[in-house]
Design brief:
The chain is about 80% helix and about 0% strand. It has about 150 residues and is mostly helical. The chain has a domain at about 1-15 and about 30-115. Helix 1 runs antiparallel to helix 2 and helix 1 runs antiparallel to helix 4. The termini are far apart.
Amino acid sequence: MFRLIVFLIEIILAAVLGGILGYAANPGRPRSRVQALVLLTVGAAVIAGVSSGFSDTTVGSPQGILIAGIIISTGLLAAGFLAREDNSSRRLLTIASFWMAATVGILVGVGSLIRAILLTGLAYYVLRYLPDVFHRQGNSQSSEENES
């Protein structure tokens, strides 16, 4: 019973963290991307959680193979979303957010919940606020050039 409760907490945490990443990467965009990142994060958490039950952690172990499969599958999934993007910088952001969601899911699945939360916080900051920092720097430089 305890393992089931822990599993449910991990799944809910993965869904919340995936939703945060989806919202940060796609504000005002189609909700299908948010849903895709939530499902990707939860799926990665489940697969990584199942694979963490394997005791062998050597190169080529079942856990390593499953986690590599998550990363490869994430790239293929992101490629499907990329086909609809016009903007090349938006394409990079899409694939990066998909891989970040997979990484967060893997961390949740292997029990590194604090790392998953910290990584999500960092990704949220980068996706939501870092572009504004660079935009403000560009505006202040151009206003200084206009004054001289």
